[in-house]
Write a structure and sequence with these properties.
heterodimer; A: about 325 residues; alpha/beta; Rossmann fold; Helicase, Ruva Protein, domain 3; 2 domains; five-stranded parallel sheet; two-stranded antiparallel sheet; 13 strands; globular; B: about 270 residues; alpha+beta; Immunoglobulin-like; three-stranded mixed sheet; three-stranded antiparallel sheet; 7 helices; rod-shaped
Chain lengths: ~325, ~270
C-alpha cells in the first residue's frame, strides 16, 4: 500500500484535532463537522437543513474558536434588508461625510440562520456576495476576509412563511447536509453533559451555564495550519478513473427519466473538490470512490429536481438519487 | 193569359238560382281550393268519379248534398291541378247508375299567372332497382374471419419481433461485463473508461454477493465493503492501483486477484 506523505499526515492530524475539539462540546454531529471542514478547505459554502435545536450555532461557534476565526451570526427574518447583511454608507453628522459601515458579512464564518425566511432580494444579495467574495458599498468595493465560509440553515420548505431558494441559488452552496436527530445513546450523552454544566457566578449574582460556556478561546493550531490544510487539499491526487466516476454520476442524473433537472457542471466540480477534502480529512493523498459516494447526496440532492410524473408517482429526490448511485455500481 | 204570365214569373223566380248555378262558371287559381255552393244537378245523387291515376285535372270533394226539385244541390270543394277550363261533368257521375252526368254545362276554369302549356310537368321518377339486398350474415362472417386473421398475424409478428430482439441483444449481466473487462485487463489494454467500469462492477459484484449489502445505500455499502474480510483485499488494492498517484501494486499483481471473475459464471 502507498503511504501518504508526511505533510498529508500532519494535516490530517491537525484536522482530527479540530474534530476532537468540536467533539468535546458537541455530541454526535461528526458528519456535520466533517462537512463543515470540507466546505472550509475547499472555499465552498454549506447549507444545513433541519429542525431547530440541533446545535448548529454551537457547532459553528466551536469550529470558529478552534480555528481562531472570526464568527458572526445573522437571524434571517422577513423584514431583513440587504444592507443589514452587507453594510451601508452612513452620513457622519460631525464630519459631514459618508462613513462606510460594514455589515456582518465581513467575517470568516457567517452563520445565517433560517435563510429561507428572508425575502428573495436579501437571499440574492447574500448569495451574490458568496459567489464573488466581494461587496460593493456606495462606490467602493470591498473584498471579504479569507477564509470566508457561509453556513446557512433552513427549515424544511413545507413550513409556512418561507421563501424557497431557487435552484440557481441553491447551486451556489457546495454542500447541503440534512441534519438528523441524535441517536438515543448520543441523546443520553447530551443530557448527561447538560446536567453537569453547573452555575457560573458573575459579580454578586449567578447564571446557569450553557454549552456555549464550554467553548474556550484556545485554538487548535495556527491560521497558517489552516492555509496549509487548504493547500494540501489542492494537492490531493485525483485519478483519471475517479474523473470518469464523477462524470458517470453526473451524467446519470441528467439522463434519468424521473429527473427534470440533473446536476450542473458546478455539481461535478463540487463533488470532486469535496472528495479531495474528504480524502485529506481521512488521511489519504488520493480520492477514492468512497469519497464520491459519501458526498454524492450532500452535493447532488439540492441540485436535482423531480419531474411532475415522478412527483405524481410519489417518488422522492432521495430515493431517485440512491437508485442512480446504486445503478452506477451494477 | 195573366195566369200563364204569373206561372212563368213564379217558375222563373224559382229557376233563377238553379240557372245561375248551372250557368256561372267558377274560376280558381291553380292549386287553391274553391268552394262552389248550391250547384243544382237534376236527377239522382251524384258522386265524384274516383281518380285512378295522378292525371286528373281537378280534385272534387262533395261537402254537402241538399234536396231540390227533381235533383239535388251540392256544395263542392274543388282544387284545380291543371290550368285551363274543365267540364265538371267529366268528374261526376250518378251514384246509383254510375253513368256520367251529361246534363251539366258548368265548367271550372283554373287560372295561372303563367301562359298555358309552359308549366313544367313533374317527370315520372325513374324506377331504380335496389342494390344487392341481403347477404349481411355472410358479409359479417367474412369480415370476422378477416379480423381474426389480421389479429393473429399481429400477435405472431410481435411475438417473433420480441423473440428476435431478445435473441439478438440480451442485456449482458454484471458478471459477463466483468469477464470482458478482466480479460482486457489481463491483456493489458484497458482504457481509463474501462478501468472505471471495472472498479464499479467489482464493487457492484460484492454489494450483490454479500448478504445485507444489497439494499443498503451505495455510500454505506462501500464503507462496509472496504472493511469486509472477504471483499476488502481486492477492493483496497484495486483502489490503490487505480487511484493512488504512485501505487505500490503493479498491474501484474492485481491480475491474479481479478482472475476469479474471468472464469466465474453469473
Amino acid at each position: 500500500m502507498s503511504t501518504p506523505s508526511e505533510s498529508i499526515g500532519d494535516t490530517a492530524a491537525y484536522l482530527q484535532k479540530i474534530r476532537d475539539r468540536v467533539g468535546q462540546i458537541i455530541v454526535g454531529q461528526d458528519v456535520v463537522v466533517e462537512r463543515t471542514l470540507i466546505a472550509l478547505l475547499t472555499s465552498g459554502h454549506l447549507l444545513l437543513e433541519g429542525m431547530p435545536g440541533l446545535a448548529k450555532t454551537l457547532l459553528v461557534n466551536t469550529i470558529s474558536k478552534a480555528l481562531h476565526l472570526d464568527f458572526r451570526r445573522v437571524q434571517f427574518t422577513i423584514d431583513l434588508l440587504p444592507s443589514d447583511i452587507l453594510g451601508s454608507e452612513i452620513l457622519d453628522e460631525k464630519s459631514g461625510e459618508f462613513r462606510t459601515h460594514k455589515g456582518p458579512i465581513f467575517t470568516n464564518l457567517l452563520l445565517t440562520d433560517e435563510i429561507n425566511r428572508a425575502a428573495p432580494k436579501v437571499q440574492g444579495a447574500l448569495l451574490e456576495s458568496m459567489q464573488e467574495r466581494k461587496v460593493t458599498l456606495g462606490n467602493e468595493t470591498f473584498s471579504l476576509p479569507t477564509p470566508f465560509l457561509v453556513i446557512a440553515t433552513q427549515n424544511p420548505i413545507e413550513q409556512s412563511g418561507t421563501f424557497e431558494l431557487p435552484e440557481a441559488q441553491l447551486d451556489r452552496f457546495m454542500l447541503c447536509h440534512r441534519l438528523g436527530y441524535p441517536t438515543p445513546d448520543e441523546e443520553e450523552e447530551i443530557l448527561r453533559r447538560n446536567l453537569n454544566l453547573g452555575v457560573e457566578k458573575k459579580g454578586s449574582g449567578a447564571v446557569a451555564r450553557t454549552e456555549f460556556d464550554l467553548v474556550t478561546d484556545d485554538s487548535v493550531g495556527t491560521p497558517e495550519d489552516l492555509v496549509h490544510a487548504m493547500e494540501a487539499t489542492h494537492k490531493i491526487h485525483v485519478s483519471e478513473v475517479l474523473l470518469k466516476h464523477v462524470v458517470d454520476i453526473v451524467e446519470r442524473t441528467r439522463q434519468h427519466p424521473d429527473l427534470e433537472l440533473g446536476c450542473s457542471p458546478r455539481a461535478g466540480i463540487s463533488l470532486l473538490k469535496s472528495s479531495r477534502a474528504r480524502a485529506l480529512i481521512h488521511g489519504r493523498d488520493y480520492a477514492i470512490p468512497e469519497d464520491l459516494f459519501a458526498l454524492a447526496e450532500d452535493v447532488c440532492l439540492h441540485r436535482i429536481r423531480l419531474s411532475y410524473e415522478a412527483l405524481a408517482e410519489g417518488k422522492t429526490p432521495q430515493a431517485v438519487l440512491q437508485q442512480i448511485l446504486n445503478d452506477s455500481i451494477s | 193569359m195573366i195566369r200563364s204570365l204569373l206561372l212563368f214569373i213564379t217558375l222563373a223566380f224559382f229557376q233563377i238560382p238553379d240557372l245561375k248555378s248551372q250557368i256561372s262558371n267558377p274560376t280558381s287559381p291553380l292549386g287553391l281550393p274553391t268552394e262552389v255552393t248550391d250547384l243544382y244537378i237534376p236527377g239522382s245523387k251524384i258522386e265524384v268519379i274516383p281518380r285512378k291515376n295522378s292525371d286528373s285535372s281537378l280534385v272534387i270533394r262533395i261537402l254537402e248534398i241538399k234536396s231540390a226539385a227533381d235533383g239535388f244541390r251540392y256544395d263542392l270543394d274543388i282544387y284545380g291541378l291543371d290550368p285551363g277550363t274543365h267540364k265538371l261533368s267529366d268528374f261526376l257521375r250518378y251514384a246509383d247508375s254510375k253513368s256520367p252526368v251529361s246534363n251539366l254545362p258548368v265548367t271550372f276554369t283554373v287560372t295561372t299567372q303563367h301562359p298555358l302549356d309552359t308549366l313544367p310537368k313533374p317527370s315520372d321518377p325513374e324506377a331504380v332497382p335496389p342494390e344487392k339486398l341481403g347477404g349481411y350474415k355472410t358479409l359479417i362472417i367474412v369480415l370476422g374471419i378477416l379480423w381474426l386473421i389480421i389479429l393473429l398475424l399481429i400477435i405472431f409478428y410481435r411475438k417473433k419481433q420480441i423473440a428476435d430482439f431478445t435473441a439478438e441483444s440480451p442485456p449482458p449481466t454484471l458478471h459477463e461485463r466483468l469477464q470482458v473487462l478482466v480479460t482486457n485487463a489481463s491483456r493489458g489494454n484497458l482504457t481509463d473508461h474501462e478501468r472505471a467500469s471495472l472498479e464499479r462492477l467489482v464493487l457492484g459484484h460484492w454489494k450483490e454477493k454479500l448478504p445485507g449489502l444489497e439494499n443498503l445505500p451505495a455510500a454505506r455499502a462501500l464503507v462496509q465493503l472496504r472493511s469486509h474480510p472477504e471483499a476488502s483485499p481486492l477492493i483496497l488494492k484495486l483502489e490503490e492501483w487505480l487511484h493512488a498517484p504512485a501505487p505500490s501494486i503493479s498491474h501484474e499483481e492485481i491480475l491474479p486477484l481479478l482472475q476469479p471473475f474471468e472464469n466465474s459464471r453469473s
